[in-house]
Amino acid sequence: MFNHYALIDPRSPEDYRYVGRTRHTLKRRLSMHLNTAKTHYPGSPVHQWIVDLLLLGIKPEIVNLSFGFEGDEEFLIKHFAREGHCLLNVVHNYNGKKGE
Description:
By secondary structure, the protein is α+β, with helices and mostly antiparallel strands. The protein has one domain (about 5-100). The protein is about 35% helix and about 25% strand. It is built from three helices and six strands, in the order ββααβαβββ. The chain has a three-stranded antiparallel beta sheet with strand order 2-1-3, sandwiched between helices. A three-stranded antiparallel beta sheet has the order 4-5-6. β5 and β6 (about 95-100) form a beta hairpin. α1 (about 25-40) packs across α2 (about 45-55). The protein is globular, with a radius of gyration of 13 Å. Residues about 95-100 have low confidence and may be disordered.
């Protein structure tokens, strides 16, 4: 079973910055994002964002989005992009538009 999640800046928790899914616990998945950001900088937009937060002394938080949803990650990315979240997902970077 997958867990669907969003990464957020704790200063603006209403704005999802990255949407994903994982078979890991959410705590473990956040740890994986943090480790990737630290070891593969600059990396992807989400990992650049994480490093920027860490340089400010802020750690991103992870929010459970599963709420019984079994669909695919792409659906959730499109859904939250349409709602106006500034996602950093590679397929929908910054403004919900398809990445190059």
